């Protein structure tokens, strides 16, 4: 590799060209132009410009059982779509994944409106050209000496839309995220729809981890009712407005919700966290089904 190597580690690999039912040990090398997977069978060179998808959800259970953590990469070669799976320990793959996404979409000039909405209400913010970059669990938008950060773990939801930005309809990612005591919506548009898809995959990867984490939290009916009441109040309210019972019961319920990361308390008010919003969203969706 003539380019400077930004990642070099030993992992478990599986590609379409390997006649294996389970991953094999191999070496992973990454630079700004290509990803090289080396095994005893040879090597597979994947140009970053040919990567189509980085969807972790496509790692089949029959393969993931052999891996602590993994990422699936779909790419084009000679007119055909190929797939490779890179696995390893959680920390190593997390770092590799971040580096890969940074090379795919980091340091891009984008059109962004931040915040486009505050608490669900449209703001008077203007669209600006900004520089987008990625950290392990955050998106940064920079203009001049100002930087806005979207912590991906605070993302409540996101969707692809077409928005009028700079007086022209553009493919846009609309991102809802919790920021302190309120919910913000940020619009981000990239000229390349391929790179816009990578951005949504980066968010989905981290968002899905939060959703899975929330699903493993045991939330009682009483706690759920309190969260729904807080959500109905706009995401922040006084303790008495959302939690009934005597003072001892209120304190116990509040403590439980805080320990589970579903609410925070500031200046005498409760605030719904992104995890708390996910619980409420799941509850409302189940009621409407």
Structural account:
The protein has 289 residues and is an alpha+beta fold. Helices cover 30% and strands 42% of the residues. The chain contains seven helices and 18 strands. It is globular and about 70 Å long. The protein starts with 6 loop residues before the first strand and ends with a helix.
Unreliable runs: none
**Strand pairing plus helix content: what structural class?**
alpha+beta
Strand content: 35-45%
Average pLDDT, rounded to a whole number, is 86
**Tell me, what's the shape?**
globular
CATH hierarchy class name of the largest domain: Mainly Beta
Number of domains: 3
Using the CA coordinates, give the radius of gyration.
22 Å
What's the CATH H-level homologous superfamily of the largest domain? Pleckstrin-homology domain (PH domain)/Phosphotyrosine-binding domain (PTB)
CATH architecture of the largest domain: Roll
- Count of separate DSSP helical elements: 7
Pfam family, one: CheF-arch
Protein name: Taxis protein
Organism: Halonotius terrestris
Task: Please summarize what this structure is.
With 289 residues, the chain is an alpha+beta fold.
């Amino acid at each position: 590799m003539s380019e400077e190597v930004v990642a070099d580690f030993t992992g478990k690999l599986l590609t379409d060209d390997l006649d294996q039912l389970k991953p094999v040990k191999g070496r992973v090398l990454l630079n700004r132009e290509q990803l090289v997977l080396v095994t005893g069978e040879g090597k597979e060179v994947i140009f970053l410009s040919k990567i189509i998808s980085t969807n972790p959800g496509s790692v089949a259970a029959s393969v993931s059982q052999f891996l602590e953590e993994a990422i699936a990469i779909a790419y084009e070669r000679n007119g055909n779509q190929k797939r490779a799976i890179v696995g390893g320990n959680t920390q190593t793959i997390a770092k590799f994944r971040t580096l890969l996404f940074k090379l795919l979409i980091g340091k891009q000039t984008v059109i962004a409106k931040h915040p486009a909405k505050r608490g669900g209400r449209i703001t008077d913010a203007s669209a600006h050209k900004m520089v987008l970059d990625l950290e392990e669990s955050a998106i940064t938008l920079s203009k001049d000496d100002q930087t806005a950060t979207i912590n991906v773990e605070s993302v409540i939801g996101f969707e692809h839309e077409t928005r009028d930005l700079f007086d022209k309809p553009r493919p846009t990612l609309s991102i809802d995220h919790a920021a302190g005591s309120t919910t913000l919506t940020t619009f981000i548009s990239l000229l390349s729809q391929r790179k816009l898809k990578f951005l949504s995959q980066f968010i989905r990867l981290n968002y899905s981890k939060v959703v899975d984490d929330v699903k493993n939290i045991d939330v009682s009916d009483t706690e759920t009712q309190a969260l729904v009441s807080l959500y109905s109040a706009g995401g922040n309210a006084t303790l008495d407005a959302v939690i009934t019972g005597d003072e001892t019961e209120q304190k116990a319920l509040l403590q439980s919700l805080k320990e589970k990361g579903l609410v925070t308390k500031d200046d005498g008010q409760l605030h719904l966290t992104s995890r708390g919003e996910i619980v409420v969203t799941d509850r409302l969706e189940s009621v409407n089904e």
